[in-house]
Amino acid sequence: xxxxxxxDISTAKLHGYLLSAVAPRPIAxxxxxxxxxxxxxxxxxxxxxxSANPPIMIFSPARRVRNNTTKxxxxxxxxxxxxxxxVVNYAIVQQMSLASTEYxxxxxxxxxxxxxxxxxxxxxxxxVAESPIQFECKVTEIVALGNEGGAGNLVICEVVKMHLNxxxxxxxxxxxxxxxxxxxxxxxxxxxxxxxxxxxxxxPLTTLGIGVDxxxxxxxxxxxxxxxxxxxxxxxxxxxxxxDVDNFAKDNTQFVGIKSIEKHKFAQAxxxxxxxxxxxxxxxxx
Length: 286
Fold this sequence. Notes:
Elements: H1 11-21, E1 28-33, E2 39-44, E3 47-52, E4 55-59, H2 72-79, E5 82-86, H3 93-99, H4 109-113, E6 117-118, E7 127-128, E8 133-144, E9 153-164, H5 177-180, E10 183-185, E11 190-193, E12 197-200, H6 217-220, H7 227-234, H8 242-251, H9 260-272, H10 276-284
Antiparallel strand pairs: 1-2, 1-5, 3-4, 4-9, 5-8, 6-7, 8-9, 10-11, 11-12
Helix pairs in contact: 3-7, 8-10, 9-10
């Protein structure tokens, strides 16, 4: 058996071991707001529920390992002590992943990830309308666990109101786990779908994805492409150039001259194979 003293390895390596070993972990898709009213949306997998009376949840925006900087979520809850924790199910997991991209502070991840901002009843941060369950919370305490890269910051939240989409409820009013179809985080690029096990989502670009807000409306408003499809399409640094699209069309004449709805179906098939570039080329053929 390999035995390791945490102090003998790098923080990055220790971080990787911890994330892979303690898995799967529930995801807090946290919506916050700063003192100027700018919204932020970001997922955190250091998260769980710890009490029912009072109803307490805790998530932890850790300091970045690579450069010891803090995340906008932590900065926001220090300014405005409120948060909405949105539950992530399979239907929104690709968009959630895109929202984890480190956009600038003035960029609204709701728009970049293609989510609908839903006004909360008791707190200032917006809810994610597409999330099946949303918890409006007041932040009661923030506990810093250290000052070095990788150190967590426990954001202790009291649930003041919760919202459940009736579509995920059983006949007796309880949450139907099959209908909820929740996902969790594991190590590396792995996620766990409660219904069917592990799957992978490539980590968002270190460069910035264009975002759902930059996808042409004719594609964004497709009756075929799902939110997950749009999340994948949005996680590219730039669109294929016209030269590459034209060459693709010459080699794939079956995509030329077809209706938009058919293009969307073919693009979706490419996305199911994780071939995002080909999906874009199909969509951009004139």
